[in-house]
UniProtKB/TrEMBL annotation:
Name of the protein in question: Uncharacterized protein
Matches recorded under Pfam families: ABC2_membrane_4
Top-rank taxon, per record: Bacteria
Segments traversing the membrane: 34-59, 79-100, 121-154, 174-197, 209-226, 277-297
Keywords, ordered alphabetically: Membrane, Transmembrane, Transmembrane helix
Length: 303
């Protein structure tokens, strides 16, 4: 009787907990070279963006922090869009790896055999990826901010230009950070859905990387078709594409007359609000999450 009770307590203690699964997934990512290589490449991309901004500002008095401090920092804030772009590429790679490698190496059968549920495993991975995304966002912003400060010091010799910024300028910068956070969440779910759908590391990474490339290039194709046919329906279709809507969020929040602050955005007038873009993004997020959950739960992984 005592032996039975001890075994029962051991079984309960050995049952995998959700926090333990999340910690294990984070450990997998932190120990894999892909995470560090992709992360460093992402941060190097942000350093490169700051360097390009510096090179274009040198010798340009109109954009000097001494003569036009607000214009200089607004230009720097606009560069924050690359926090979303570089971070997105990083998240696509680690998401496709974390989920796709379970199918690629067949380790998912071992994990499920230890009593972990399919959806429990999926949501543990998604939670770990969201934590990584938040950490990467913080690091990326710090790296980019440091580069912006260095640019100001090189061009002006001091940081007095920061005193010219008002609340609306910092609010403008916050739009980019909010857009990056939303984009990171959607990117993780999209890459996860592709990896689960294809049950392959290669398929998941390829499909996820191609998604936004095709999505963004479609704006140009639809614009050309609309120009040739003189039919606005093709312009309206652009507003239902995930990538272009993510690109358009900042300019929609900022109240631009034309949503063209970033490349590959829907070419529409200001009648399209950020709420409409957010609804489309939310629709994609729910649909992609449903795909990941459905195929993860329904498919047999024991073959």
């Amino acid at each position: 009787m005592e032996v039975s009770n001890v075994q029962g307590h051991m079984a309960i203690g050995m049952f995998p907990s959700f926090p333990g699964l999340v910690q294990g997934e984070i450990t997998k990512l932190m120990r894999h070279p892909l995470t560090w290589v992709a992360g460093l490449l992402s941060l190097c991309g942000l350093v490169g963006v700051n360097l390009l901004i510096l090179l274009t500002d040198i010798g340009n008095d109109a954009r000097s922090p001494l003569k036009d401090p607000v214009g200089f920092w607004t230009n720097q804030f606009e560069g924050l869009m690359f926090v979303r772009v570089c971070g997105g590429l990083f998240l696509i790679m680690i998401t496709a790896y974390l989920i796709g490698m379970e199918y690629h190496f067949g380790t998912i059968r071992v994990v499920l055999g230890r009593g972990v549920g399919k959806l429990q495993l999926l949501f543990a991975k998604l939670t770990a990826l969201l934590i990584m995304a938040l950490g990467m966002l913080v690091i990326s912003v710090l790296v980019y901010a440091l580069g912006s400060v260095v640019n100001a010091l090189i061009l002006a010799g001091n940081l007095n230009s920061l005193s010219a910024l008002k609340g609306e300028n910092w609010k403008f910068a916050s739009y980019f950070l909010s857009s990056a956070l939303i984009s990171h969440v959607v990117t993780i779910i999209m890459a996860a859905a592709m990896a689960v759908l294809g049950r392959s590391l290669a398929f998941g990474m390829t499909a996820a990387l191609c998604w936004f490339a095709v999505d963004n290039m479609a704006t140009i194709m639809l614009y050309l078709v609309a120009s040739f046919t003189h039919n606005d329906i093709f312009l309206k279709i652009q507003t239902y594409l995930l990538g272009p809507d993510l690109n358009a969020l900042v300019s929609a929040w900022a109240g631009q007359e034309h949503v063209r602050l970033a490349m590959f955005t829907p070419i529409v007038n200001g009648s399209y609000s950020s709420t409409q873009f957010l609804l489309v993004i939310a629709g994609y997020t729910v649909a992609l999450l449903a795909i990941a959950v459905f195929f993860m739960a329904r498919r047999d992984v024991k073959e």
